[in-house]
Design a protein that fits this description.
This protein is about 35% helix and about 15% strand. The protein is α/β, with parallel strands linked by helices and about 375 residues long. The chain folds into two domains: about 15-105 and about 110-240, Aspartate Aminotransferase, domain 2 (3-Layer(aba) Sandwich), CATH 3.40.640.10; about 245-370, Aspartate Aminotransferase, domain 1. The strands form five sheets. The chain has a seven-stranded mixed β-sheet with strand order 2-10-9-6-5-3-4, sandwiched between helices. The mean pLDDT is about 95. The structure holds pyridoxal-5'-phosphate.
Length: about 375
Protein backbone atom coordinates (compact mmCIF):
# COMPACT_ATOMS: atom_id res chain seq x y z
CA UNK A 1 0.00 0.00 0.00
CA UNK A 2 1.34 3.37 -1.04
CA UNK A 3 0.84 5.83 1.80
CA UNK A 4 1.17 8.87 -0.42
CA UNK A 5 -2.08 10.34 -1.76
CA UNK A 6 -2.07 10.21 -5.54
CA UNK A 7 -4.51 12.80 -6.82
CA UNK A 8 -5.81 12.94 -10.37
CA UNK A 9 -3.61 15.98 -10.88
CA UNK A 10 -1.04 17.92 -8.95
CA UNK A 11 -0.36 21.51 -9.91
CA UNK A 12 2.97 22.15 -11.52
CA UNK A 13 5.03 24.63 -9.50
CA UNK A 14 8.45 26.02 -10.47
CA UNK A 15 11.18 26.27 -7.80
CA UNK A 16 10.11 29.04 -5.39
CA UNK A 17 13.43 30.87 -5.64
CA UNK A 18 12.82 31.41 -9.35
CA UNK A 19 9.68 33.36 -8.52
CA UNK A 20 11.16 35.68 -5.91
CA UNK A 21 12.85 38.08 -8.40
CA UNK A 22 9.46 38.59 -10.08
CA UNK A 23 7.88 39.45 -6.73
CA UNK A 24 10.67 41.90 -5.95
CA UNK A 25 10.01 43.72 -9.22
CA UNK A 26 6.30 43.98 -8.42
CA UNK A 27 7.05 45.32 -4.94
CA UNK A 28 9.49 47.87 -6.37
CA UNK A 29 7.19 49.09 -9.12
CA UNK A 30 4.05 49.12 -6.94
CA UNK A 31 2.17 48.21 -10.08
CA UNK A 32 -0.17 45.42 -9.01
CA UNK A 33 -2.69 45.14 -11.83
CA UNK A 34 -4.36 47.04 -14.72
CA UNK A 35 -2.23 45.96 -17.65
CA UNK A 36 1.18 46.26 -16.00
CA UNK A 37 4.56 45.18 -17.34
CA UNK A 38 4.18 41.47 -16.56
CA UNK A 39 0.66 41.40 -17.96
CA UNK A 40 1.91 42.75 -21.29
CA UNK A 41 4.98 40.52 -21.33
CA UNK A 42 2.87 37.47 -20.53
CA UNK A 43 0.43 38.13 -23.37
CA UNK A 44 3.32 38.50 -25.83
CA UNK A 45 5.10 35.41 -24.52
CA UNK A 46 1.88 33.37 -24.74
CA UNK A 47 1.32 34.45 -28.35
CA UNK A 48 4.86 33.36 -29.21
CA UNK A 49 4.61 30.06 -27.38
CA UNK A 50 1.18 29.11 -28.70
CA UNK A 51 1.70 30.44 -32.21
CA UNK A 52 -1.30 32.78 -32.23
CA UNK A 53 -1.43 36.52 -32.86
CA UNK A 54 -3.83 38.01 -30.31
CA UNK A 55 -4.41 36.97 -26.71
CA UNK A 56 -6.16 38.69 -23.82
CA UNK A 57 -5.38 37.13 -20.47
CA UNK A 58 -8.11 36.90 -17.83
CA UNK A 59 -8.40 36.33 -14.11
CA UNK A 60 -9.94 32.91 -14.82
CA UNK A 61 -11.37 30.83 -17.65
CA UNK A 62 -15.01 31.30 -16.68
CA UNK A 63 -14.81 35.10 -16.96
CA UNK A 64 -13.05 34.60 -20.29
CA UNK A 65 -16.02 32.49 -21.46
CA UNK A 66 -18.59 35.01 -20.18
CA UNK A 67 -16.75 37.86 -21.88
CA UNK A 68 -16.23 35.99 -25.16
CA UNK A 69 -19.98 35.44 -25.43
CA UNK A 70 -20.50 39.17 -24.85
CA UNK A 71 -17.84 40.12 -27.37
CA UNK A 72 -19.53 38.03 -30.08
CA UNK A 73 -23.02 39.39 -29.16
CA UNK A 74 -24.31 35.86 -28.82
CA UNK A 75 -27.93 35.47 -27.73
CA UNK A 76 -30.89 33.11 -28.12
CA UNK A 77 -29.76 29.48 -28.33
CA UNK A 78 -26.28 27.98 -28.47
CA UNK A 79 -25.54 24.38 -29.42
CA UNK A 80 -23.10 22.79 -27.00
CA UNK A 81 -21.97 19.57 -25.33
CA UNK A 82 -23.26 18.09 -22.06
CA UNK A 83 -19.91 16.33 -21.62
CA UNK A 84 -17.79 19.10 -20.10
CA UNK A 85 -17.08 21.02 -16.93
CA UNK A 86 -20.19 22.85 -15.74
CA UNK A 87 -18.68 26.31 -16.51
CA UNK A 88 -19.24 25.70 -20.23
CA UNK A 89 -23.02 25.79 -19.94
CA UNK A 90 -23.09 28.13 -16.92
CA UNK A 91 -21.43 30.82 -19.06
CA UNK A 92 -24.44 30.61 -21.39
CA UNK A 93 -27.07 30.84 -18.65
CA UNK A 94 -25.22 33.79 -17.07
CA UNK A 95 -25.65 35.55 -20.40
CA UNK A 96 -29.35 34.58 -20.55
CA UNK A 97 -28.59 32.26 -23.47
CA UNK A 98 -30.30 28.88 -23.70
CA UNK A 99 -27.94 25.92 -24.05
CA UNK A 100 -29.05 23.24 -26.51
CA UNK A 101 -27.25 19.98 -25.78
CA UNK A 102 -26.36 17.53 -28.49
CA UNK A 103 -24.77 14.11 -28.13
CA UNK A 104 -21.05 13.40 -28.33
CA UNK A 105 -18.87 11.32 -30.59
CA UNK A 106 -17.84 7.99 -29.01
CA UNK A 107 -14.17 8.23 -30.00
CA UNK A 108 -13.31 11.88 -29.33
CA UNK A 109 -15.98 12.61 -26.67
CA UNK A 110 -16.46 15.96 -28.42
CA UNK A 111 -19.85 17.13 -29.65
CA UNK A 112 -20.85 15.11 -32.70
CA UNK A 113 -20.95 17.45 -35.74
CA UNK A 114 -23.42 15.12 -37.46
CA UNK A 115 -26.02 16.16 -34.84
CA UNK A 116 -25.59 19.93 -35.09
CA UNK A 117 -27.87 20.66 -38.05
CA UNK A 118 -30.89 18.92 -36.55
CA UNK A 119 -30.54 21.09 -33.42
CA UNK A 120 -30.52 24.44 -35.28
CA UNK A 121 -33.63 26.61 -34.83
CA UNK A 122 -34.37 30.24 -35.81
CA UNK A 123 -33.05 31.19 -32.33
CA UNK A 124 -29.64 29.55 -32.81
CA UNK A 125 -26.77 32.03 -32.98
CA UNK A 126 -23.68 29.97 -32.20
CA UNK A 127 -21.99 26.64 -31.59
CA UNK A 128 -19.86 26.22 -28.45
CA UNK A 129 -17.78 23.04 -28.71
CA UNK A 130 -15.18 21.85 -26.20
CA UNK A 131 -11.87 20.24 -27.22
CA UNK A 132 -12.47 17.61 -24.55
CA UNK A 133 -9.26 16.34 -22.84
CA UNK A 134 -7.39 18.36 -25.49
CA UNK A 135 -8.75 16.21 -28.34
CA UNK A 136 -9.32 18.53 -31.31
CA UNK A 137 -12.93 18.88 -32.44
CA UNK A 138 -13.81 18.31 -36.08
CA UNK A 139 -13.08 22.00 -36.71
CA UNK A 140 -13.58 21.99 -40.49
CA UNK A 141 -17.00 20.32 -40.35
CA UNK A 142 -18.10 22.63 -37.50
CA UNK A 143 -16.95 25.68 -39.50
CA UNK A 144 -18.73 24.43 -42.64
CA UNK A 145 -22.02 24.18 -40.74
CA UNK A 146 -21.47 27.54 -39.05
CA UNK A 147 -20.82 29.20 -42.42
CA UNK A 148 -23.87 27.56 -43.99
CA UNK A 149 -26.23 28.77 -41.25
CA UNK A 150 -24.47 32.03 -40.34
CA UNK A 151 -23.53 30.94 -36.83
CA UNK A 152 -20.60 31.99 -34.63
CA UNK A 153 -18.22 29.38 -33.22
CA UNK A 154 -16.77 29.81 -29.74
CA UNK A 155 -14.37 27.07 -28.64
CA UNK A 156 -14.06 26.22 -24.99
CA UNK A 157 -10.39 25.24 -25.29
CA UNK A 158 -9.84 25.06 -21.52
CA UNK A 159 -8.20 21.63 -21.97
CA UNK A 160 -6.28 22.49 -25.13
CA UNK A 161 -3.24 24.54 -24.06
CA UNK A 162 -0.47 23.90 -26.58
CA UNK A 163 -2.54 21.52 -28.73
CA UNK A 164 -1.79 21.72 -32.46
CA UNK A 165 -3.22 20.23 -35.63
CA UNK A 166 -1.37 19.95 -38.92
CA UNK A 167 -1.83 23.69 -39.59
CA UNK A 168 -0.64 24.95 -36.18
CA UNK A 169 -2.40 25.96 -32.96
CA UNK A 170 -5.88 24.51 -32.46
CA UNK A 171 -6.75 27.89 -30.94
CA UNK A 172 -6.81 29.62 -34.33
CA UNK A 173 -10.15 28.02 -35.25
CA UNK A 174 -13.61 29.51 -34.80
CA UNK A 175 -14.46 33.12 -33.95
CA UNK A 176 -12.80 32.94 -30.52
CA UNK A 177 -11.21 30.32 -28.29
CA UNK A 178 -10.91 30.46 -24.53
CA UNK A 179 -8.26 28.89 -22.28
CA UNK A 180 -8.17 28.16 -18.55
CA UNK A 181 -5.03 28.40 -16.46
CA UNK A 182 -6.65 27.00 -13.33
CA UNK A 183 -4.40 25.09 -10.92
CA UNK A 184 -5.74 21.75 -12.19
CA UNK A 185 -4.97 22.47 -15.84
CA UNK A 186 -1.87 21.56 -17.90
CA UNK A 187 -0.60 25.15 -17.65
CA UNK A 188 -1.54 27.10 -14.55
CA UNK A 189 -1.27 30.60 -13.09
CA UNK A 190 -3.05 29.50 -9.84
CA UNK A 191 -6.26 30.85 -11.43
CA UNK A 192 -6.29 32.33 -14.90
CA UNK A 193 -7.63 32.23 -18.40
CA UNK A 194 -7.42 33.83 -21.81
CA UNK A 195 -9.29 34.61 -25.01
CA UNK A 196 -7.59 34.06 -28.36
CA UNK A 197 -8.81 36.57 -30.97
CA UNK A 198 -8.39 36.43 -34.74
CA UNK A 199 -7.55 40.14 -35.19
CA UNK A 200 -6.38 43.25 -33.33
CA UNK A 201 -9.82 44.98 -33.36
CA UNK A 202 -11.47 42.03 -31.62
CA UNK A 203 -8.70 41.87 -29.04
CA UNK A 204 -9.10 45.59 -28.38
CA UNK A 205 -12.84 45.18 -27.75
CA UNK A 206 -12.20 42.25 -25.45
CA UNK A 207 -9.61 44.28 -23.55
CA UNK A 208 -12.22 47.03 -23.06
CA UNK A 209 -14.75 44.45 -21.90
CA UNK A 210 -12.40 42.92 -19.31
CA UNK A 211 -11.76 46.40 -17.84
CA UNK A 212 -15.37 47.58 -17.20
CA UNK A 213 -15.61 48.85 -20.80
CA UNK A 214 -13.07 51.65 -20.31
CA UNK A 215 -11.50 52.79 -23.59
CA UNK A 216 -9.61 55.59 -21.84
CA UNK A 217 -9.75 57.44 -18.53
CA UNK A 218 -13.20 58.91 -19.07
CA UNK A 219 -14.76 56.87 -21.86
CA UNK A 220 -16.78 53.72 -21.21
CA UNK A 221 -17.69 52.10 -24.53
CA UNK A 222 -19.28 48.86 -23.39
CA UNK A 223 -20.97 47.07 -20.52
CA UNK A 224 -17.72 45.55 -19.31
CA UNK A 225 -16.76 43.52 -16.30
CA UNK A 226 -13.64 43.11 -14.16
CA UNK A 227 -11.84 40.18 -15.79
CA UNK A 228 -8.29 41.47 -15.46
CA UNK A 229 -5.36 39.23 -14.62
CA UNK A 230 -3.12 40.78 -11.94
CA UNK A 231 0.68 41.17 -12.02
CA UNK A 232 1.41 38.24 -9.69
CA UNK A 233 -0.56 35.83 -11.87
CA UNK A 234 1.03 37.27 -15.02
CA UNK A 235 4.58 37.04 -13.66
CA UNK A 236 3.90 33.48 -12.54
CA UNK A 237 2.62 32.65 -16.02
CA UNK A 238 5.80 34.02 -17.57
CA UNK A 239 7.87 31.79 -15.32
CA UNK A 240 5.64 28.76 -15.99
CA UNK A 241 6.22 29.14 -19.73
CA UNK A 242 9.90 28.39 -19.16
CA UNK A 243 8.96 24.99 -17.72
CA UNK A 244 6.01 23.96 -19.85
CA UNK A 245 7.89 22.00 -22.53
CA UNK A 246 9.53 19.88 -19.88
CA UNK A 247 6.15 19.33 -18.19
CA UNK A 248 4.54 18.29 -21.49
CA UNK A 249 7.37 15.83 -22.23
CA UNK A 250 6.92 14.18 -18.80
CA UNK A 251 3.15 13.94 -19.33
CA UNK A 252 3.73 12.23 -22.66
CA UNK A 253 5.90 9.56 -21.01
CA UNK A 254 3.25 8.91 -18.36
CA UNK A 255 0.58 8.60 -21.06
CA UNK A 256 2.69 6.08 -23.00
CA UNK A 257 3.38 4.01 -19.90
CA UNK A 258 -0.35 3.82 -19.06
CA UNK A 259 -1.21 2.89 -22.65
CA UNK A 260 1.36 0.11 -22.73
CA UNK A 261 0.35 -1.30 -19.35
CA UNK A 262 -3.43 -1.06 -19.63
CA UNK A 263 -4.15 -1.82 -23.30
CA UNK A 264 -5.77 -5.20 -23.71
CA UNK A 265 -6.82 -5.37 -20.05
CA UNK A 266 -10.23 -7.09 -19.99
CA UNK A 267 -13.03 -4.63 -19.23
CA UNK A 268 -10.88 -1.50 -19.61
CA UNK A 269 -11.13 0.51 -22.81
CA UNK A 270 -8.59 3.21 -23.63
CA UNK A 271 -9.67 6.11 -25.81
CA UNK A 272 -8.02 6.23 -29.23
CA UNK A 273 -4.86 8.38 -29.05
CA UNK A 274 -5.43 12.09 -29.51
CA UNK A 275 -5.67 12.98 -33.21
CA UNK A 276 -3.68 16.22 -32.71
CA UNK A 277 -0.27 16.68 -34.28
CA UNK A 278 0.78 17.86 -30.84
CA UNK A 279 -1.32 16.91 -27.81
CA UNK A 280 -0.84 17.92 -24.18
CA UNK A 281 -1.74 14.71 -22.27
CA UNK A 282 -3.71 16.73 -19.77
CA UNK A 283 -5.90 13.77 -18.78
CA UNK A 284 -5.74 10.00 -18.89
CA UNK A 285 -9.33 8.78 -19.24
CA UNK A 286 -10.26 5.10 -19.23
CA UNK A 287 -13.66 3.47 -19.73
CA UNK A 288 -14.63 0.82 -17.18
CA UNK A 289 -16.84 -1.58 -19.12
CA UNK A 290 -19.20 -4.30 -17.92
CA UNK A 291 -16.44 -6.89 -18.54
CA UNK A 292 -14.43 -5.46 -15.62
CA UNK A 293 -14.89 -7.26 -12.24
CA UNK A 294 -15.88 -4.01 -10.51
CA UNK A 295 -18.33 -1.34 -11.62
CA UNK A 296 -16.79 2.05 -12.41
CA UNK A 297 -17.99 3.46 -9.08
CA UNK A 298 -16.63 0.51 -7.12
CA UNK A 299 -13.29 0.74 -8.90
CA UNK A 300 -13.25 4.46 -8.06
CA UNK A 301 -13.93 3.66 -4.38
CA UNK A 302 -11.44 0.79 -4.27
CA UNK A 303 -8.72 3.04 -5.72
CA UNK A 304 -9.61 5.70 -3.17
CA UNK A 305 -9.12 3.16 -0.37
CA UNK A 306 -5.63 2.64 -1.77
CA UNK A 307 -4.92 6.39 -1.80
CA UNK A 308 -5.42 6.73 -5.56
CA UNK A 309 -7.81 9.61 -6.16
CA UNK A 310 -9.07 9.07 -9.70
CA UNK A 311 -11.89 11.35 -10.86
CA UNK A 312 -15.12 10.74 -12.72
CA UNK A 313 -14.71 13.52 -15.30
CA UNK A 314 -17.38 14.12 -16.59
CA UNK A 315 -20.04 12.68 -14.35
CA UNK A 316 -22.74 13.74 -13.82
CA UNK A 317 -23.30 15.32 -17.22
CA UNK A 318 -24.02 19.06 -17.25
CA UNK A 319 -27.50 18.23 -18.56
CA UNK A 320 -28.24 16.36 -15.32
CA UNK A 321 -27.75 19.38 -13.03
CA UNK A 322 -30.96 20.97 -11.71
CA UNK A 323 -30.73 24.18 -13.77
CA UNK A 324 -30.45 22.19 -17.02
CA UNK A 325 -32.37 18.95 -16.53
CA UNK A 326 -35.71 20.46 -17.57
CA UNK A 327 -34.50 21.46 -21.03
CA UNK A 328 -35.87 19.32 -23.86
CA UNK A 329 -32.32 18.78 -25.17
CA UNK A 330 -31.19 17.57 -21.72
CA UNK A 331 -33.34 14.43 -21.82
CA UNK A 332 -31.24 11.26 -21.69
CA UNK A 333 -32.89 9.89 -24.85
CA UNK A 334 -31.29 12.82 -26.71
CA UNK A 335 -27.83 12.08 -25.27
CA UNK A 336 -27.32 8.29 -25.24
CA UNK A 337 -23.58 8.29 -25.95
CA UNK A 338 -22.84 11.00 -23.38
CA UNK A 339 -24.81 9.06 -20.73
CA UNK A 340 -23.05 5.82 -21.57
CA UNK A 341 -19.59 7.44 -21.36
CA UNK A 342 -20.42 9.33 -18.14
CA UNK A 343 -21.25 5.94 -16.53
CA UNK A 344 -17.93 4.39 -17.57
CA UNK A 345 -15.39 7.21 -17.45
CA UNK A 346 -12.56 7.40 -14.96
CA UNK A 347 -9.58 9.76 -15.23
CA UNK A 348 -6.36 8.38 -13.75
CA UNK A 349 -3.66 10.50 -12.09
CA UNK A 350 -1.41 12.23 -14.60
CA UNK A 351 0.97 15.11 -13.80
CA UNK A 352 4.66 15.82 -14.40
CA UNK A 353 5.71 15.00 -10.82
CA UNK A 354 4.07 11.54 -10.86
CA UNK A 355 7.02 9.20 -10.25
CA UNK A 356 7.55 5.89 -12.04
CA UNK A 357 7.05 4.04 -8.76
CA UNK A 358 3.75 5.80 -8.09
CA UNK A 359 2.54 5.14 -11.61
CA UNK A 360 3.55 1.47 -11.30
CA UNK A 361 1.59 1.31 -8.05
CA UNK A 362 -1.52 2.70 -9.80
CA UNK A 363 -1.13 0.27 -12.69
CA UNK A 364 -0.50 -2.78 -10.50
CA UNK A 365 -3.47 -1.88 -8.29
CA UNK A 366 -5.80 -1.79 -11.31
CA UNK A 367 -4.28 -4.98 -12.73
CA UNK A 368 -4.64 -6.82 -9.44
CA UNK A 369 -8.37 -6.01 -9.43
CA UNK A 370 -8.71 -7.11 -13.06
C1 LIG B 1 -11.61 24.45 -16.17
C2 LIG B 1 -12.65 24.61 -17.20
C3 LIG B 1 -13.36 25.81 -17.36
C4 LIG B 1 -13.31 26.95 -16.38
O1 LIG B 1 -12.09 27.50 -16.19
P1 LIG B 1 -11.75 28.27 -14.81
O2 LIG B 1 -10.40 28.85 -15.13
O3 LIG B 1 -11.70 27.23 -13.75
O4 LIG B 1 -12.77 29.28 -14.58
C5 LIG B 1 -14.23 25.91 -18.43
N1 LIG B 1 -14.42 24.90 -19.29
C6 LIG B 1 -13.78 23.72 -19.15
C7 LIG B 1 -14.02 22.64 -20.14
C8 LIG B 1 -12.89 23.53 -18.09
O5 LIG B 1 -12.29 22.34 -17.93
Amino acid sequence: MNMKSLYVTQPDLPPLEEFLPFLEKIWESKRLTNSGTFHKEFETALCNYLGVEHISVFVNGTLALLTALQALHISGEVITTPYSFVATAHSLLWNAINPVFIDIDRDTLNLDPARIEAAITPETTAIMPVHCYGNPCDVSEIQRIADTYGLKVLYDAAHAFGVEDAGGSILRHGDLSILSFHATKVFNTFEGGAIVSPDAETKKRIDYLKNFGFADETTVVALGINGKMNEIQSAFGLLQLKHIDNALALRKQIDSAYRKALSGLAGITLLPPNSASKGNNGYFPILVETGFPLSRDNLYLELKRKNIFARRYFYPLISEFPMYQGLPSAQSTNLPVAHDIAKKILCLPIYPALSNEDQDYIISTIKSIA
